[in-house]
Amino acid sequence: MIKNLIVILMTSVLVNNYVLVKFLGICPFLGVSKKINQAAGMGIAVTFVMILATAVTWPIQTFILDKFNLAYMQTIVFILVIATLVQFVEIVLKKYMPSLHSSLGIYLPLITTNCAVLGVTVNNINDGYNFVESMVSSLGCGLGFLIAMVLFAGVRGHMEKCNPPEAFKGLPLTLVAASIVSLAFFGFAGVIDNLFA
Amino acid sequence: MEGILTAVAVVAAVGIICAVILILASKYLHVETNEKAKQIRDVLPGANCGACGYAGCDGYAAALANGEVDKTNLCVPGADAVSRKIAELTGLKAEDVIEKVATVKCLGDCNMTSDKSEYHGINTCAAAKMLYGGKGSCTYGCIGFGDCAKACPSGAICIENGIAHVNTKLCTGCGLCTKTCPQHIISLMDDVDKVLVTCSNKEKGAVVRLKCKHGCLGCKKCEKGCPVGAITVSDNLANIDYDKCINCGECAKNCPIDCIMISDFSGIHRYK
Question: Are A160 and A33 in contact (CB under 8 A)?
Answer without folding.
Answer: no
